[in-house]
Amino acid sequence: MHKYLVPISESFSSNANDDYAFRMKKYMKDKFDYFGIKSPERKILKKAFTDEYGFPELSELDNIVKVCWQLPQREFQYFIMEVLGRLAKKAGKERIELYEYLIENKSWWDTVDYIASNLVGVHFRLYHDLIIPFTRKWMNSGNMWLQRTAILFQLKYRKDTDLLLLTDYIQQLQGSKEFFINKAIGWILREYSKTDPDWVVRFIEKNELANLSKREALKWMERKNIEN
Q1: Which structural domain, as residue segments, surrounds residue 205?
Q2: pTM for the complete prediction?
Q3: In sequence order, what are the residues at sequence separation of 6 or more whose Cβ sits closer than 8 angstroms to the Cβ of residue 165?
Q4: 135, 153 in Cβ contact below 8 A?
């Protein structure tokens, strides 16, 4: 345990709830252990910690992040992701390698989705020249979580979405049987439909998407009674 993490570890331990921990573990298909701290309470504990102890020194950051990532309770991963989120706009170019490590290790939707939109997405706005080399590498990796990130990093880009890149990557993944890939395709299209619903409708008509992707893509428009 790194000394920086001792106070937050003690805080999590003293607020543990065995009943919630059991239910959280089951919800995540028994992939991770938990203290059993719900998200609103965990964020209060994190704020109290950072108010008192601040954020890690840059020279120690990678080490602290990786220590957190190896600890058994999932709350440590949530905690350090959110710390990285506060530091994301000041990250150096090389930070992408740390994000890549986090995507590839202890991979599941609850961490990957945050990393994709709140860390990688912010980073690629800062360093546009990294987008093509890294996302192409991820698309060619065969790693479902890296591919999901290549789709979802533009989740908050709205009018700045690179539609040619998004089209290319969705078309490369057409025909995938992976739930998390097809769900991601639908999610990114649904988010972009809030910016340009007509483009999304045309895209769905022109491409052979999985039914899951289509359902997800159309949800927002259907709720808003936008014709498609």
Answers
A1: 130-228
A2: 0.94
A3: 131, 132, 135, 154
A4: yes
